[in-house]
Amino acid sequence: MGGTAQIEGQFAKATSALQSSEHGRLLDVIDHLRALGIDRRVPLPQLVVCGDQNSGKSSVLEAVSGVRFPTKDTLCTRFATELILRRSVSTSVDINIRPSHDRSEDEKARLLAFKPSSDNIDEFPQLVEAAKEAIGIDDHGKRFSEDVLRVEVSGPQQPHLTLVDLPGLYHSGNKRQTVDEAELVKSLVER
Prior knowledge:
Layout: H1 2-18, H2 21-35, E1 47-49, H3 57-65, E2 80-87, E3 92-98, H4 105-112, H5 124-135, E4 148-155, E5 161-165, H6 179-190
Parallel strand pairs: 1-5, 2-4
Antiparallel strand pairs: 2-5, 3-4
């Protein structure tokens, strides 16, 4: 029993340190650099859950963040989603799409103008679905994207944490996804 209490004490101490204002400022700088695309040249720290499809990645992120991620028995995560949690006196939600570098200028402008009908974080699965439509993902054409949905949630109860949900890896094509798309998903995970 003493071992469990000691581990719990160490965990509480570690998580308390993660919630300092200094840690929050550092994460804000890292997220700003990521938004500028620096992460394509320099690896920046972030918590990323990756693995095979339907292995529970989104459920792990939901347990860590307290935000309900969309989950289904079938293909669900189709693009990277950054969930940026920040402790702040006031509550706010900022949602945007960071277009991939291979988008045309018109497509980039359209995606940068994305504003969902609601910014209620309790409706996170609907926010992801709205982004999926804006990005142009459907079951008959484009199934995965290099665009990134960025959702920043600030509030007095939020931890200082950045999480990234990625599409699940798969190894062979089927009716819902091709071998070529498997390579795209693999490249997203390797970034």
